[in-house]
Amino acid sequence: MSINVDARGLGCPQPVIATKKALESIASGVITTIVDNATAKENVAKLAAASNCGVSITETNGHFYIKITKGDTPTETSLADEDTSSSVGEGVVYLITQDTMGHGSKELGAVLMKSFMYTVLESRPQPKAIMFVNSAVQLTIAGSPVLEHLKQLAERGVEVLSCGTCLDYYNLKDKLAVGGVTNMFTIVETMAAAPKAVTI
Amino acid sequence: MTIYGEYDRLLSFSSVHHAIRAEKLLAEKGIKVIALPTPREIDISCGQCLLLLAKDQPAALTVLRIAQVKWSKLFSRDAAARIYEQLTDYGGDAQLV
């Protein structure tokens, strides 16, 4: 079974939806989706990878031909384990220095911090560690707006570490709800050993 | 990787102010929501969205309608496949339910 899905000219998410419908219509076979932009190409490839299909992509004159093999053992490269959406590097360490993101509105900063943690949770490869200092320790205590995100990151092996001095300063030692307590020696060593350390 | 897979509805907003207000109002009413940046599959521009459960959709939209919070589009969400299919937009039928 072979199906062609010509999704050129269609806006997101139509190429993905059309491909999904084609995938659902066959038990096994090859679907070739044709798109004309990189975003659609990535999104269709991600769909194929999430559906455990083999994927190969060729480009001709700015048009992407995404060949998706469903059923049997995919003989072509699967993108399932590849990171197609994230530029977060392997083993990156984040140092979070305040409870909101950026300077300016605290309300907006809280929104951005939630968005940031959600996106880190979704990104691959995942960071090695996220460390919290100063007012950022308010993110790791009970009632934190990002507590659920951090718990999931911790469950997936990301080190979530809060500065002990900072918890002490803010009188939050007994409220820590995720991860462990650390000190400046560990913070410095962890950052120095990381391939990339990012301060937020 | 699937995160928050049980959340099968996504509500987008044209303004971050409305998104913030919506999140606060829905939380106050005990409706479970997750705030997130707008997925690239929907829009590559910046924006804020809320995830919610389909079972809470009628109650959530009622809360927002009464409070005159303007949302943009409502999508169904297949978290595993990262597919968002638009169900309606603001002013569409779904806000009436």
The helicity of chain A comes to 25-40%
Order of strands in the sheet with the most strands of chain B? Answer: 2-3-1-4-5
CA-atom Rg of chain A in angstroms? 22 Å
Choose one word for the global shape of chain B.
globular
What is the ordering of alpha helices and beta strands of chain A?
Answer: EHEHEEEHEHEHEHE
Biggest sheet descriptor of chain A: 5 strands, parallel
Number of helices of chain A: 6
From the alpha-carbon coordinates, what is the Rg of chain B to the nearest angstrom? 12 Å
Q: Count the beta strands of chain A.
A: 9
Q: Which structural category do the helix and sheet elements of chain B fall into?
A: alpha+beta
- Spatial strand arrangement across the major sheet of chain A: 8-7-6-5-9
Please report which band the strand proportion of chain A falls in: under 5%, 5-15%, 15-25%, 25-35%, 35-45% or over 45%. 15-25%
Output mean pLDDT of chain A: 86
Give helix % range of chain B. 10-25%
The end-to-end span of chain A amounts to 51 Å
Largest beta-sheet characterization of chain B: 5 strands, antiparallel
**Approximate strand percentage of chain B:** 25-35%
Briefly characterize the structure:
The complex is a heterodimer of chains A (200) and B (97). Chain A has 200 residues and is an alpha/beta fold. Chain A is built from six helices and nine strands.
Task: Characterise this structure.
The complex is a heterodimer of chains A (200) and B (97). Chain A has 200 residues and is of the alpha/beta class. Chain A is built from 6 helices and 9 strands; from the N terminus they run βαβαβββαβαβαβαβ. Chain A is 33% helix and 23% strand. In chain A, the strands form 2 sheets. Chain A has a 5-stranded parallel sheet with strand order 8-7-6-5-9. A 4-stranded mixed sheet of chain A has the order 1-2-4-3, with helices on one face. In chain A, helix 5 links the parallel strand 7 (159-163) and strand 8 (180-182). With 97 residues, chain B is an alpha+beta fold. In chain B, strand 4 (73-78) and strand 5 form a beta hairpin. The radius of gyration of chain B is 12 Å and the shape is globular. The N and C termini of chain B lie far apart (32 Å). Classes of the chains: A alpha/beta (200), B alpha+beta (97). The A-B interface holds A 12-13, 16-17, 20, 39, 43, 46-47, 50-51, 85, 107-108, 111, 114-115, 118-119, 121-122, 124, 148, 152 and B 1, 3, 16, 19-20, 34-37, 40-44, 48, 80-86.
